[in-house]
Amino acid sequence: MRIAVIHGEVGAGAGRDEQDVLTQVDFVSRGLAALGHEPVAVPASLNLEAVARTLTDLQPAIVFNLVETLAGKGSLIHIVPALLDVLKIPYTGAGTEAMLLTSNKLIAKRWLAATGLPTPAWFTASEMREEFRIEGPWLIKSVWEHASIGLDEDSVFFGADRKRLLAEMDTRCEALGGACLAEAYIDGREFNLSLLAGEGGPEVLPPAEIRFDSYPPGKVRVVGYRSKWEEGTFEFANTPRTFQFPAQDAPLLSQLKELARTCWKIFALQGYARVDFRVDGTGRPWILEVNANPCLSPDAGFSAATLRAGLTFPDVLCRIINKGK
Hints:
The protein has 325 residues and is of the alpha+beta class. Helices cover 34% and strands 20% of the residues. It is built from eleven helices and 13 strands.
């Protein structure tokens, strides 16, 4: 069948994080072709009328949604699913509402907290009331942008007072996509749990941990932009992913899996997803983010988890397209 592989248009001068979607388009398209489908890449811009016209002319059986940004803005990630809803064209992954709920980190954290799930404390500049207790460390991050945009070790502030935090948030806001928050920094282990639709509900793929073993004392442990995108940096070379755990981690891994399944349920996710965690020194897990359309590049964490589970990429694509059926 004909499948439109839709993605955000990549402009000249785009960073590695934006360019990566083209790698995903190629990888997904080759996988779909191997299954006997006819993939057609469709770049999407803010000219939604043109996008709608292209899709109407193409008449795909389904759209494989790889849109992460529109016009370079993560805050517009839910626009394409909304357009597809209007056009009544089926598409892969999360629906419009789930995409909006998970992509806005403030909404996601409020949703998690309201359902009793553990997520680090947070505040925005507008919520910084005089009676608010400032106890560090705090990490300043984007409300909308993913792929660790604007996030590195200098995003973490130890012992900062109210005035300093407000000033840093104001200074960094534009580079963080126009909206940011301060989140309690959890100094501990970092885990990624990928989920894939299955016949009996979501399958939690083998848990992965991002290790900081070679980090010297005093170096802040964050999986930032350099860790993900800047080859040749210390951070890129020294944040390896592992799927091997000692026996004593079994109860923790079981807890993380259950939390990941709960996230899938409360956000009504579909197809595939990834939940990122930090585990503090006491062994308590904290949900950092819920990603409704994680990267599908061959070197990304989701693909690594599927390989660890013994799945081929065509197998994965079938389950994403059929939402587990």
